[in-house]
Amino acid sequence: MSPESALLYLLAIFVFAVTPGPGVFTLLARGMASGGRACLTLALGMTASDLIYLMLAFYGLAAIAENWSEAFTVIRYLGAAYLLYLAWKMWTAPVTAEPLDPEQRRVDALKGFLQGFLISASNPKVILFYIAFLPTFIDLTALGGADMGLVVGL
Fold it and tell me: At 108, phi and psi to the nearest 5?
């Protein structure tokens, strides 16, 4: 990968990262409700989902995804339904003015990981980035092992 491609990729990643989406808002809400440590497993789940999309893009499945647009439409609708479910849970949850005790603040690690994974896996912005946007910057078929490590590291 040329230094110019790496720089363009880094810039694109930065723009996508600072643009708020469902993942950012979920992390903010979790952090405000349960503290920063509760965000760790959520962020790990989001990262795992991103790595899976990146590996799929590396192995040429972006071309297959273009032909299976119906499957990605279903994924988007499932993601929207999941976000609506989360919104409903937040809307109907009782509001308390008292600080939460430590037992109520504890978030199950596996549940947090799965929530982060599902939010990121069903996020249309993430799907668009790895399936349509990333291949325009980087020739994924010409990447070697070291190049893949650089892309994942950025």
Answer: -60, 130
CA atoms of 122 and 73, how far apart (whole Å): 10
In a domain, 98, yes or no: no
CA atoms of 121 and 32, how far apart (whole Å):
23
pLDDT, tens digit (0-9, with 9 covering 90-100), for 10-64: 887 787 777 788 888 889 988 888 888 889 999 999 999 988 888 877 776 656 6
User: CA–CA separation, 42 vs 33, rounded Å?
Assistant: 13
What domain range includes position 126?
A: 3-93+103-153
